[in-house]
Please model this.
Amino acid sequence: MVDIKKIQKAIREENLDGWLFCNFRHRDPLSDAILERPAGLTNSRLWIYAVPSSGEPFALLQAIEADHLDGLDGRKDTYISREDLKALLAPLAGKRWGAHFSETLSAISFLDRGTASFLESAGLVLVPAESLVQRFKSLLDSGDIASHERAARGLYAIVETVWDFVKSSCAANRELFEGDLRRVMEEEFVRLGLFRDHPPLAAAGVHSANPHYDFQGRGARIKEGDVVQLDLWAKEKEPRSIYADISWAGFYAKEIPKMVENVFADLVSARDKTVAFIEKALAAGPVRGAEVDAYTRSLLIAGGYEKAIKHRTGHGIDTECHGSGVNIDSLEFPDHRFLLEGSCFSLEPGIYLDRCGFRTELDVYITGGKPRYYGKLQSSLLHC
Model:
């Protein structure tokens, strides 16, 4: 059941007049998801669902698909021609409506320019809905946090299982491949009843310098002296379960070169200082995702790693691993939304050199006005 009161609360908190949902050929999966529209429903005509900050929602549908928003609150009108639709939009004119477009956040930008122009020609004032989406879809309550922590507990246990397997292979001088590590992770997902939307990452040697490395079959053989990067994410299988997403790094040898230790120590320092920065910033007032990323990036640049940074510091997490909430990003998709009570996001700074890369990742959520996280932080590289 669509929670219209929750939608209206988000609208008022953003000081808008309403939230405008519309879809054509299911091009906006966000509207479908929030309004719980079936993916298999024919959507050959534009429909519009306008939720005001208070009062009754308003649905507009083409006459041959007049039942497509049945089950939703509010009154309903149908149109046949383009001019009919424009006339029916008159009550919405002159008001500020949150709509699914953004100059920077492609992940929630689904409203096409042509439809936006038509709506504006009817007098509607369109405002990017990024913050509305975060408030409605991505702020965790206590039950959500518990779900997230259960998933995280499973992921940390899987890392221990995988590295025990690595150490036993190393001790036995047994041939070891990236695919062997992925297989162990996948088996543990099944055993623990966790769901993931994509196979986890196991990258060794030069492949660890590729944050989105993938392979077929068994992948590359892991050799002595290789950096080994693990990245795994999953959630429980029940509805409204929340993802956890962690990355741990290791070194396939009994001893770690000092240079390798130093690079990873610099990365850990940047991560930990970022958590402290968030806590201090929140105590002083609102802080934006872009501000946090800029701070982390400044630490890595000061350490001489400017050319070794390949991605943002983090992404929002909710029922999707890359969720709709605030990203810790000032460069790729600059996110100027605030870290709000209930926000959940990854902190995963990375240093990627020519022959290897390192990433350490934890998930942070804001509760009681402070950043918190579940599980222990990796402070040194795993090794044999």
